[in-house]
Design brief:
By secondary structure, the chain is α/β, with parallel strands linked by helices. About 35% of the residues lie in helices and about 20% in strands. It contains nine helices and eight strands. The protein has an eight-stranded mixed beta sheet with strand order 1-2-3-4-5-6-7-8, with helices on one face. Helix 4 runs parallel beside helix 5 and helix 5 (about 120-130) runs parallel beside helix 7. It is globular.
Length: about 240
């Protein structure tokens, strides 16, 4: 089986709610979000103009299947779950088989996705049943192209993935990385109306980092995010702040 594994966080208490887990990072992405902190993982062999202008990045060395399985076997009595993130994990053709393999080892699986491949997501939800889904909501629909770093976005794909996740019977969350250039305060109400009644929604504060060379955004203050969360809770009662 092939999985483009380029990163491993051996322990996390935050990424998989309520579980002690590790996080594995897969390369490749169909978005080019200007605030992405994993840009080393999304680069292709021929970077886009946006990637080139944002700085020089090199993909870290790959982690072998043998190394990953050896690590997971060693941690079976310590870790409860595996978080699969990226990049965009649904681009990996054998992802479903890997989810099954992790399940066979006794691990729960959390899958992160940007939701832009609803057909692939539907197959994973139907056949391989990850235990938890986290889908990024980049912005209000009107700002999605900018926030995802693409020329245009077929918002119906995002909406289909939202629908699939909500109807899957699998625990899930939606989450948004917030910055003043990405979402206005009015946009938060628009997002709340879009996701009304969702199981859980998290606002995550933008964090500046060196991989964003030349690209900087303005984070909301904690007070501003609390005000946004108060508005959102009228539509999504389980709205929380993360990383504040």
């Amino acid at each position: 089986m092939v999985m483009n594994l380029y990163g491993l966080q051996k322990t996390t208490l935050l990424d998989f709610p309520g579980r002690v887990a590790c996080t594995i990072f897969l390369s490749g992405c169909n978005f080019r979000c200007p605030f992405c902190q994993n840009r080393d993982l999304i680069l292709t062999d021929r970077p886009t103009d946006m990637e080139a202008s944002a700085g020089s990045f090199s993909r870290p060395p790959a982690i072998s299947e043998e190394t990953l399985i050896r690590f997971l076997k060693k941690r079976q009595n310590i870790l409860e779950g595996i978080c699969i993130t990226g990049g965009e994990p649904t681009l990996s053709p054998d992802l479903g088989e890997w989810i099954d393999r992790f399940h066979s080892m006794g691990y729960l699986v959390k899958l992160d996705t940007n939701g832009y491949r609803p057909d692939a997501l539907n197959r994973l939800l139907d056949r391989h049943r990850p235990d938890y889904i986290a889908m990024d909501i980049k912005a209000a629909p009107s700002r999605y192209a900018y926030a995802s770093g693409t020329a245009q976005v077929d918002i119906s794909r995002i909406e289909e993935s939202i629908r699939l996740i909500r109807q899957s019977g699998i625990s899930y969350e939606f989450r948004t990385t917030t910055a003043k250039e990405l979402q206005s305060m009015e946009d938060f109400r628009s997002i709340g109306e879009w996701l009304s009644g969702a199981q859980a929604y998290y606002l995550q504060s933008y964090q500046d980092c060196e991989t964003l060379s030349g690209l900087h955004f303005t984070p909301y203050t904690e007070a501003e995010l609390n005000a946004a969360a108060a508005v959102l809770r009228e539509l999504i009662p389980n709205t929380f702040l993360r990383g504040i």
